[in-house]
Write a structure and sequence with these properties.
Four Helix Bundle (Hemerythrin (Met), subunit A); single chain; 0% strand
Length: 213
């Protein structure tokens, strides 16, 4: 096989970037005890909630769509037990962060507990994603056909991720070469998406993380 699971790798790249900067933002605000204005508090809460939803969508799509394909294709060569166990602990962590985010919107401060939960999620997923890319990506390349991988990606898209949140984050971590390839493959619609979708999202990011972040 010569397929490349680029969508999976880009999703991981975007997730790791946000894990680092969300954990860093929360740690700094918790240390300072800063009382946020209502608009920024609401923006931070909304971003953290969307991020938790994005992580849940990603790992549930792996469980429901990708893992069965790998088990059929790679057979005895794949053991997904450890990765599945990792996924099982994510939802309680995400629930705590969603609860903490709601408290930010109400109280307009970032509690130390939320900062600790985000740091824990960051550490957990950095390790998990490294394990996944080391073990799963080679199996996809070797055992999953191009046609089967295209069906996997199509099935995941049908699960309804929030594209206004996902696409700008993916574009932000794409290399110039990856963006050029996307334009070649997608034509004018994708070129317009690449040009226009990041604009409102950058304003949202500036409110959440501060200018230049």
């Amino acid at each position: 096989m010569n397929n490349e699971p680029n969508g999976l790798l880009l999703a991981h790249r975007a997730m790791l970037r946000d894990l680092d900067r969300c954990a860093g933002l929360a740690a700094g605000l918790a240390r300072s005890g800063e009382r946020l204005d209502r608009k920024r508090a609401t923006a931070i809460a909304g971003y953290l909630t969307d991020f938790c939803d994005s992580i849940h969508h990603h790992h549930s799509a792996e469980d429901d769509v990708l893992w069965p394909v790998l088990e059929r294709s790679a057979g005895a060569h794949v053991d997904l037990t450890e990765l599945t166990d990792d996924h099982a602990v994510l939802d309680p962590k995400l629930a705590r962060i969603r609860s903490g985010a709601a408290a930010v919107a109400t109280n307009r401060t970032v509690p130390a507990e939320l900062a600790a939960d985000l740091a824990d999620l960051r550490d957990t997923l950095h390790e998990h994603i490294a394990d996944e890319e080391r073990t799963i990506v080679p199996l996809i390349k070797r055992y999953v056909s191009d046609d089967e991988w295209n069906r996997v990606e199509a099935a995941i898209r049908r699960r309804g991720a929030k594209m206004s949140f996902e696409v700008p984050r993916i574009l932000a971590v794409s290399t110039p070469g990856e963006l050029a390839e996307a334009r070649r493959e997608g034509g004018i619609p994708v070129a317009l998406m690449i040009k226009l979708m990041p604009l409102p999202f950058k304003r949202r990011e500036a409110l959440v993380f501060g200018a230049g972040r």
